[in-house]
Amino acid sequence: MILKSIDILNFKNIASSTLDFSPGVNCLLGMNGMGKSNLLEAIHFLCMARPMTPIPDSSLIRHGEEMLIVKGEFLSDTDVADTIACGLTKGKGKSLKRNGKEYKRISEHIGRFPIVTVTPGDSQIVGGPGEERRKLMDMVISQAHPDYLAQLIRYTRSLESRNRMLRAGVRDALLFESVESGMEEAADAIHDARMKWVAAIAPKIEDCYRRLSGKRESTSIAYKSQMSGTSLHELLAERRAKDSVLGFTSAGPHRDDIETSLDGYSLRRLGSQGQVKTFTVALRLAIFDYLKEASGITPLLLLDDIFDKLDASRVESIMHEVTSSETFGQIFITDTNRKHLDDIISGMEGPRSLINVDCGVFSPISLD
Fold first, then answer.
1. Which residues contact 237 (CB under 8 A, 6 or more apart)?
2. What does the buried/exposed string (b/e) look like for 313-351 if buried means 16 or more CB atoms within 10 Å of the residue's CB?
3. Of 269, 183, 267, which is closest to residue 227 (Cα–Cα)?
């Protein structure tokens, strides 16, 4: 899948822009704060109908404006063209259309245009709270399996109902059981999907990390869930009295986590910045491979500030990984250093482009 072109209006610092992209590597050059990452965010917004970073949708609208529109033309691996338009208006919410027809539910869009991003904030996947790792699992699995998102929504709604009952001091066991039955069915589906995802992704991460690190280190991930070896039904019944005191549900998929390790030690506690960055890149590339296998669609790959916190040998390994393999399709790379991007372009064959970014304005740079 490739993104042929994009039209942007009032998106962050981008007032108005129309861009055509190379089907291969697209390099974005500019100083910090000029709009490189904002363009990647706009692409992510088209594919996922949500920001790339954990910010309110309304903060995407350019300061002083009331609405934004991002429109893109996609071409599938089988040369099928699609036009996606995603708009946001203050006080009115979001509009998402495919080929001029609005989706009944935005969830129907998730997974149609798979995307994988590598950003400086990815370090939170390792060092941040468990919520970051659950979000990662949910976003990836939802792109590959649309029914997963439906179960996640169902579980979340039931969880919110149970928590309201706990805070209100409800003691009726039958009422709790009626709410919990919906939670339990959804939780089983979520737990099973996450367990299978970690089993599928773990060897891919390990293999990719060893290549990127020059086979100097090995890494692994493990799925941690309170439901391993027991059912949510048993957990909820066992903890109902405790939860009534706490005022929230203390067990369930919303407490799941992923444990990361490097050479048998905790990556979170002992990993260097370079090792954490290498792991998150390996994780994202493994996710790319997983989504491609699961959906049959080649995702877009967005590499934002990829050179930060990495030594030259690891950068070289990453660039060789993504630009010399037929596994990857269209790639977007941002950097502040022209030499970095020139080295990438000169070392590869096939279509590529270099775009200068200055205060939300994009200008193609000739490669002749």
1. none
2. ebbebbbebbbeeeebbbbbbbbbeeebbeebbeebeee
3. 183
**Amino acid identity of 70?**
V
Q: Kindly give, in sequence order, each residue whose CB lies less than 8 Å from that of residue 327, ignoring residues fewer than 6 positions away.
A: 288, 289, 292
Output the DSSP codes for 89-150. Answer: ETTTEEEEEETTEE-SSGGGTTTTS-EEEE-GGGHHHHHS-HHHHHHHHHHHHHHH-HHHHH
The SS3 of residue 81 is strand
Q: Which two tokens stand for residue 250?
A: 């203390």
- Sign (positive or negative) of CA dihedral 47, 50, 51, 54: negative
Question: Which two tokens mark 307?
Answer: 């050179």
The pair of three-digit structure tokens given for residue 5, joined into one six-digit string: 């072109």
Residue 169 burial by Cβ neighbours in a 10 Å radius (0-12, 13-18, 19+): exposed
Length of the chain counted residue by residue: 368
The Cα diameter of the chain in Å comes to 75
- Residue 287 CA to residue 139 CA, distance in Å, equals 11
Tell me, rounded to whole angstroms, the distance of Cα 289 from its chain centroid.
14
* Sequential pLDDT tens for the chain (368 residues): 999 999 999 999 999 999 999 999 999 999 999 999 999 999 999 999 998 887 888 899 999 999 999 999 999 888 889 999 999 999 888 999 999 999 988 889 999 999 999 998 899 999 999 999 999 999 999 999 989 999 999 999 999 999 999 999 998 889 999 999 989 999 999 999 999 999 999 999 999 999 888 888 889 999 999 999 999 999 999 999 999 999 999 999 999 999 999 999 999 999 998 899 999 999 999 999 999 999 899 999 999 988 777 777 777 788 878 877 677 889 999 988 888 888 877 777 778 899 999 999 999 998 76
Phi, then psi, of 116 in degrees rounded to 5: -130, 130
Cα–Cα dist 209/283, whole Å? 8
Extract the tokens encoding 104: 């009944």
Q: What is the DSSP string of 242-285?
A: HHHHHTS--SSGGG-EEEEEETTEEHHHH--HHHHHHHHHHHHH
Closest CA to 8 of 67, 64, 50: 67
